[in-house]
Amino acid sequence: MKMEKLIFATKNKGKIIEIKEIMKDLPFQIVSLDEAGIDIDIEENGATFEENALIKAKTIMELTGSLVLADDSGLEIDYLDGKPGIYSARFGGVNTSYEIKNNKILDLLKGVPKEKRTARFVCAIAAVYPTGDTITTYGTIEGIIAEKPSGNHGFGYDPIFYVPKYQCTTAEMSPEQKNAISHRAKALQKIKEKLKKGIK
Fold first, then answer.
1. Given the residues 39, 72, 78, 133, the one annotated as active site
2. Running DSSP on this structure, what letter comes out for residue 32?
3. Does the pTM of the predicted model rise above 0.85?
């Protein structure tokens, strides 16, 4: 039996590896935009993570007629009034490396004490069916911004996001450990359960 295709609207190679691992027990062939041969720039002009995820998923569903999932995720730092938030990917410039983005955040928090460096990763995931029906889920993980980058796993802001409970950054965690506790994992698990209920 041929598996139904599920397009995850991302070009981020690190993200799609995490997603495929977490969603591997679903009866779908999960493909990224690159794997689906889709090259499109989508303007993410929503005011929230959920709105941006829905914009991406709806755009690709209308283009392909497939079941599409999309996420919008980011880092909220309390000392910076929730920034970079929905602008996390564009913080410090669209084509700027995350090494530069991470250092920019560390510079903004220079001298700020540990108790004021609280932050969280946030992830909203939207599923859009060919019928136009939609589902959204949400996940977060709390932590603090480290004094300096540490770790080689993960991607994005992982090297500066320290989780006190585990005494390490998310970039120091194994993929298995991160996939058990991350904001994206929590949102994916919730949407996975909802998709299972929709599977005939």
1. 72
2. E
3. yes
